[in-house]
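B., you asked whether I could sanity-check this one before it goes into the benchmark set. Here's the sequence:
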Amino acid sequence: MKKSEVLGRWTVDKSIDLYGIKNWGADYFSVNEKGEVVVTPFGKNSNVHISLLDVVSGLKERGLEMPVLLRFENILDSQISYLNESFRRAIKANNYRGKYRGVYPIKVNQQQQVLEEITRFGKRYHHGLEVGSKAELIAALSVFDDDDACLICNGYKDEEFISLGLYAVKMGFRCFFVIETPSELELIMKQSEIIGVKPNIGVRIKLSSKAGGHWTESGGDRSIFGLNTAQIIEVVDSLKKCGMLDCLQLLHYHLGSQVPNIRDIRMAVVEASRIYAELVKEGCKMGYLDLGGGLAVDYDGSKTNFTNSRNYSIDEYCADVIEQVMSVMDDAEIEHPIIVTESGRATVAYYSVLLFNVLDVTNFEPGEIPEAPPADCHELIENLYDVMNSLKLKNLQECYNDALYYRDEVREFFKHGRISLRERSFAENIFWGIINKIADEKNRLKHVPPDLDGIDSAIADIYYCNFSLFQSVPDSWAIDQLFPIMPIHRLTEMPTRDAVLADITCDCDGKIDSFIGLHDIEKTLPLHELKNGDEYFLSTFLLGAYQETLGDLHNLFGDTNVASIHVYENGDYDFVREIEGDSVADVLSYVEYVPKSMVEQFRKTAEKAIRHGKITVAERKEIMNAYETGLRGYTYFEK
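And here's what the prediction gave me:
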């Protein structure tokens, strides 16, 4: 079949299936008839679609270079509404007599803009915040202004941390101190006496239940944080002794950050509910059951209990939580508690999208190979020719083994001066010709030998992309988390290249070589061949959770440019906020350089070069301008 015939039959629907955007897009992302990825911030029932390629044009007109992190305000609003409305429906359907109060854990994404928008969009639901450090508490108090929302204080707490929280209580906020270690209770009681306000106390329990996924150690007896049952009884007895048992109002646990299996969630809810009921029987005031995090994001769209997925919907999650808590409380004849969840990942993951451009490509296809070897070529090169000419479907494995052997022999001969650089280059060109031919032929085999199974990734193109993996997608490198990646345009065309992505850091780990596939993890990503002079844009999706917070300064690549977009119901949209990414001077100052001092020192070096006759005064001016312009410039590739 001719390639042109295959291309002629390619459709947008085939691109949608190939990249799985309907599976992982959660109705926020799709592809239009022009073959461009579009954002649908109001969900599938809306006709509002924003083309990411149009957004790129708007960014360029405003002077923002790639890479750019896009934040869609409406998606954040939609996710907060979805979670709260799902719980409302479950509460109503089951005649549950308590309420739901969501809280957002700041650690998931602490950016000021994110926090500000969550409190603004969440206010109609009394959606609160969770903090795990003094700095996070201070950040929370700067935006927190809802007396009916919960402010949950987790983590280790010193006197200053506790005092701030107690002042929040004094101001009328529902601020809870969750005891993580037995020693915290005494400090909380001491500070509350000094400040003159009764604390709202919670306890974090170490459940015996554990969950699968990356963060399985968050639960179980060996989890780092929380109290065992004996320690909880000690807390109860201590509060009884000082007549402050009514301060204990909340039970908290944390099963993990991304729990893919609903069965694990149900088991944990039942166990925690039983402990809650027993605390009520002990005379504790209670009233709040905090189920922590765990609501997963379906990154790969498989809807399974795979680490990067989940085998349940948000509606199912909410219904199961309500049903399990209600069942335990009714059996114990106890009032239904206010249910709190700390769903951070599911709240912000869809909100952020990284746009970046492709700078260059390396492929492993051979150059032109003469039909016959040169008359005076080395015997090893003749042997490679014999392998190439004898290659058939029935001897693929044998030819593969022979090609590797002769290629390695050529390299050894070169090391010892018995083969020239030009001869080595010629031999390796033949070798890649053989490997590419084997890769084509192996697809006709019923059973592919293990040695040949990974040959496609060995000859995959390398697309060099304008971003830093360590800064923008650190979990891909650190824990092999999958994120959806695809081109944002040209989706009416068949992608004819298989590629891995390399970032622009000079680090061999700065690459992405695991991708979401139709049925499994793929080692390559189908992409389009670059057209001369035309830019090619890719995007990584679902980056709102943790990636901005965990990013580092590897190779001194700083924060990317950021643009926040607000979409109106008529389809218009505004760039409501633009934040320029770090300049070179910014990132150097983070690692203790002083840019002004650097300029002065370099000026002295340039002046010395004038004295030694290496440059002219006019050249010094040109060099200094280049140095200072570089300091002011973006840390990423600029045209």
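One thing to flag: Residues 1-7 have pLDDT under 50 and may be disordered. Otherwise nothing jumped out at me.
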